[in-house]
Amino acid sequence: MASNGSEPLIGLTTYAEPVRFGLWDTRAAVLHETYVECVRAAGGNPVLLPPGGDWRSSTIGWLDGLVITGGADVNPAAYGQEPGPLTDAPRQSRDDSEFALARAALELDLPLLGVCRGMQVLNVVLGGTLHQHVEGHVKSPGVFAETVVDVARGSALAAIVGERTAVRCHHHQALDALGTGLRAVATAPDGVVEGVELEGSGFVLGVQSHPEQDIEDVRLFAALVRAAKEGVRR
């Protein structure tokens, strides 16, 4: 990897959405700033990755780690389904970019953390499918629901957050059939998969919740940064 400083470069995927700021009412590549703050607090150097880039293993080798962030629903066509009545309109450019980034990161054994949609992207890239709608994991639009999840003893995720932890959720889709090599390591009280790990990998984790919403608890981001630093040392 290209980075040789003390702060590894952590890529953060972004969304292309209509926004207003300053004098402008336009489209922009945007991301909740809390992701940036969490990576910084964890000791990483955040790098924003817009949709539409040329993302291949030969073009992302300068990154030391990757976070696939939350956001809109994955296009159901990617896992062989027609969209349900409550599924978001496709953001195809973002899907294409994040699928490419995930595949490249897996090829390079780059430390990877999938957050909410990001965990779903990882699952679909590995051949899994999604439930297009589940109830009870959104308190109200724009308000995160809080729940306690159980984490499998002996898992990498349990080593980071413990075997029982409170999380913040805002999602209406969830993992169904797991992708090749993924293991469910955390569940909500209703059985929804809240965490996955890729067996045999260095550091590939997915969480259905939103750890970036608690800047006081950056354990997952710190674990990613530690894994990235180990990769730099290699």
Annotation keywords:
two-stranded antiparallel ribbon; nine-stranded mixed sheet; 234 residues; alpha/beta; 5 helices; Rossmann fold; globular; 28% strand
Shape field:
globular
How much of the sequence is in beta strands?
Answer: 25-35%
Average pLDDT rating: 94
Spatial sequence of strands, sheet with the most strands: 4-1-5-6-13-12-11-8-9
CATH domain class name? Alpha Beta
Architecture (CATH level 2) name: 3-Layer(aba) Sandwich
| Rg (CA only) | 17 Å
- Per the CATH scheme, the topology name is Rossmann fold
Largest sheet: 9 strands, mixed
**Which bin fits the share of residues in helices?**
10-25%
Domain tally: 1
Tally of alpha and pi helices: 5
Order of helices and strands: EEEHEEHEHEEHEEEEEH
Low-confidence stretches: none
Description:
- The chain is an alpha/beta fold and 234 residues long.
- The protein has one domain (9-233): Rossmann fold, CATH 3.40.50.
- It is 24% helix and 28% strand.
- The chain has helices spanning 33-41, 92-108, 117-125, 156-161, 219-233; strands at residues 9-13, 15-21, 24-30, 45-49, 65-68, 112-115, 130-131, 145-151, 164-169, 174-175, 182-187, 193-198, 204-207.
- The strands form 3 sheets. Strands 4-1-5-6-13-12-11-8-9 form a 9-stranded mixed β-sheet, with helices on both faces. A two-stranded antiparallel ribbon has the order 2-3.
- The longest helix has 17 residues, at 92-108.
- The N and C termini lie close together (9 Å).
